[in-house]
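queue> holo job accepted (nicotinamide-adenine-dinucleotide)
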Amino acid sequence: MSIQRTTSIPPIVEHPRITVIGSGYLGATHAICMASLGYEVLGVDVDEEKIAALSAGTVPFFEPGLPEQLVEALDSGRLSFTTDFDEAAAFGDVHFVCVGTPQAEGSHAADLSYVDAAFEALAARITRKALIVGKSTVPIGTAARLTALVAETSPLGDELEVAWNPEFLREGFAVQDTLHPDRLVFGVASEWAERQLSAAFRPILDDGTPLIVADLATAELVKVAANSFLATKISYINAMAEVCEATGADVNLLATALSHDDRIGGRFLKPGLGFGGGCLPKDIRAFTHRAEELGVGQAVAFLREVDDINNRRRLRIVDLIRELAGGDLAGKRIAALGAAFKPNSDDVRDAPALDVARMLYLEGAEVRVYDPEANANAHRAYPDLEYVDSMTEAVTGADVVALLTEWDEFRQADPAELGRLVASRRVVDGRHALDADAYRAAGWEFRALGRPAQPETVALVVDLKDRSEALSA
Ligand code: NAD
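queue> job finished
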C-alpha cells in the first residue's frame, strides 16, 4: 500500500490528546514518557489491578527511572489511567495500541487476538476523525488487515485511519530509548496520517531524531527484521562457541578479535546463554511463520537455526554444570544466580536463566534461585523452584554456582568471600561476565560456555575491562 498524496489534506490536531491502549512494559512506558513530553495522555488496560497500581503511582514492573517519571507525570495532571474504552475513544486524537502479541498456543505464529480486540473496541467507539497507531510488533500484513477491519467496524468508515509506529525500546533502558530513540519509523497510508503522527512526536522530532516515513508493510517489517538481525548476531557467536568447545579454542578471545573489525562490531557479539525475553524468540518464530504463509519461507529459513543454536546453549550449560557437579545432578545443591532474561529487568518471559534452573531441578538438583528483581515473576512462572532473598543465601552450601543473568551484583561479588560460603568452589559463568582469572586465583574451578576448562598459557594478553566494554550490548 503506498502513501496517498492529495492536495487537500484534512486538518490535523497540532497538540493531540493521546491514548495508549495496553499498559504493560511498552504501553506504560510510552504513556508516561508522552506525558513527560507535555502531552495529555490517557493510559488504558483491561487489567484492573495494573490500572489501579499505575493510577496510584506504582509501576507494576521493574524499569529503572520509570517510577520517578510516573510520579512526576501524575503530579503534572497530564497523565491518567482507565479501563473504560468509551472514555478512551472520546479522549484521544491519536490512539497508540501497545497490547501484547505473544506466541500463539501450539504454533509459531503471533497471537493477534489482543491487537484485534483493541482495534475493534476503538473503531466501534470513535466518533471523530482520529488516528489509530499500532506499536505492538506484528506480522507483515496486519496493518493492512486492520485498516479493512476498522473501516468495516467504524461509524466513520475510512475516515478513521490506521498507522504503524514500531517500537525499539530495550527493557532496562526503556525511558532513555523512548525519549531519545535512535530513529522513528512511521508506517502511514496518507499524508494526513504522517502529519498527525509527526505532531504526536513533535518534541522528539525537534530534537533531531531521524524519521523514516514508510508504507505500512515496510514499517511492520523494520521491527521484525531488526530483531532477526540481532538474534542472528547473538546466535552466530554462540555457534562459534560450539566450534570452540570442540577444538579448545576460546570464544571470548575470538569475539574480541572479531569486534575490532568495524564492519562486524562488538555489540550483540557476546557469547553466552543466548537471548530470551518477550520479544526476540517469539518475533523470529512469528516472522518465519509469516514468511512461510507468504511463500517466502526459504528466505528466512536460517532463523530456525538461529533459534535452535540459541536453545542448544541452555542444554549445554546444564551439561557443564552437571560435569562440574561430578556427572550427576541428583541431590546436588546449585546456586542459580539470575532468573530475568537480562539484567535490569524483571521480565522472565522465555528467560534462559529460568529455563536452565528448571532443567537442573528436573534432573534432581536442589536449585536455589536468586534474582535481584525477578523472583516474584519467576515464582509465578515456576512455583516449584526454591527462591531466596539474597545472593548469600543462594550460594551458601552450593556444590556449583551458576551465573545465568549478568546483574552487576553478581559481576561485582568477591570470589574469595563467595568461596567461604559454598560447599565447593565451582562456578559456571553462563554470561562471560565474571573475571575468570580472579576466580581461579581464589581457588575456584571455573567454566564458561565456549572456553577451555583450563586456559592455555596466556600469550594473548587481553585487558578484561576493554574486552567487556567492546562486547557489551
Ligand atoms: P505486556 O504483556 O507487558 O503488556 C501488554 C498489556 O496489554 C497487558 O497489560 C495487557 O493486560 C494489555 N491488554 C491486552 N489486551 C488488551 C486490550 N484489548 N485492551 C487493552 N489492554 C490490553 O507486553 P509488552 O512487553 O508491553 O509488549 C507489548 C507489545 O510491544 C508486543 O507486541 C511486543 O512485542 C512489543 N514490544 C515490546 C517491547 C518490550 O521491550 N517489552 C519492545 C518493543 C516492542
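queue> Confidence is low (pLDDT under 50) at residues 457-473.
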